[in-house]
Amino acid sequence: MPVNPTIEYQKAEREFSEARTISEKLSALHKMLQTAPSHKGAENLRAEIKSKIAKYKKLAEKEKQQRKKSSTQAIKKEGAATVCIVGTTNSGKSTLLKNLTNANVKISNYPYTTTKPEIGVLDYKGVKIQIIEIPSIIENYINTENGPFNLSIIRLADLLILTGNIGLVKKELEKEDINIKFIIYKNQENIKDIIWENLDLIKVYTKEPGKKPKFPPVPLKKGSTIKELAKEIHQDFIKKFKFARVQGTSVKHQNQHCGLNHKLHDEDIVELHIR
Known about the structure:
The protein is α/β, with parallel strands linked by helices. Helices cover 36% and strands 20% of the residues. It has 3 domains: 7-69, no CATH class; 81-197, Rossmann fold (3-Layer(aba) Sandwich), CATH 3.40.50; 201-274, Roll (Ubiquitin-like (UB roll)). It is built from 9 helices and 10 strands. It has a 5-stranded mixed sheet with strand order 2-3-1-4-5, with helices on both faces. A 5-stranded mixed sheet has the order 7-6-10-8-9. The chain is globular. The mean pLDDT is 89.
């Protein structure tokens, strides 16, 4: 952190830390350079930023070239969230993917069995979560044949599951400025629940008057309100909204009447009433 940093610099630094894609990282770095102090004491800081800009420009070019010559297409994000299984070889990544999603993946005792990202879908109480197994992490992963492409997938994940040599995995991710929430897998039987608890999501059931709650539930970000729920169902629900009757832990009394700004909790049941 530079001496007496401006508010603009601090904002750009936060943008860099929170950025996922290489282009977002580059954009934030350019803002950092523009807003960094220009006095002699900040020369090392500016040199460090310029070095990172050069690094990310090279990464962007590598990723671009790799996409051109590779038959592997970009992976489309699906479901309420994307979770990547990231670990070293023979650390149970494929077995975990199969157990979570029933994906038809190759499992063996030989190292480096997984040569490309493998995808499955976890159904957690009706909420679909995309699970991607990333080929094994090794030293200097960015310099491997498909390293930049695989890292670009990791960057867009909402949560990582780390397996095997955790120290090596974290080191390789930190080298590429990948700061994503992670959990460490150690054969936990309740791993599905652990994944859900760390995704910062809630699932909300809707219902019509006099009927049972609908399945599947609607996935929302933690802290979401009835307004966000109404948007997910139909835009007209907000315009015609009258009140909502809510059951669950977010209300003091069951079947409580609530407005659009009421914050919902996991497994709440909401009955929307419109004009």
